[in-house]
Write a structure and sequence with these properties.
The chain is of the alpha/beta class. The chain is built from two helices and eight strands, in the order βαββββαβββ. Keywords: Methyltransferase, Transferase, Ubiquinone.
Length: about 150
Amino acid sequence: MTTTKHTLTKLVQPYLFFEGRCEEALEFYKQALGAEVMMLMRFKESPEQSPGCQPADGNKIMHVSFRIGDTVVMGSDGRCSGKPNFQGFALSLSVKTPAEAEKFFAALSAGGKVEMPLTKTFYSPSFGMVADRFGVFWMVIVPQEQ
């Protein structure tokens, strides 16, 4: 078996579909995590009609890039089916101190569902899991000091 060396830098980024609630999610992440919008385009601003969304959806978000810390997350209102289905993955938020973990965990928990309360574990001084009010699953962790 031979391997091919690629000269392009590889980057995997999360892309979240909010099924019509993207703007609300952005405001939530701005307040909860200090997210910063880098780019935002609405369906009505697209030079081409996007399949799957009706003209009445023109103010919905076609694409957004936003930064949380050093990570760029992308998102959209999606195909506007109204059926969000976040399963099988989580976003992991690494913070420096248990106090920061408490702050962000509390913010993400507002209107969401705590799956595992923040607690000390063998691998972290503070770790917890929560599904936010949009159904996005988050793991908040303070990495163990090496």
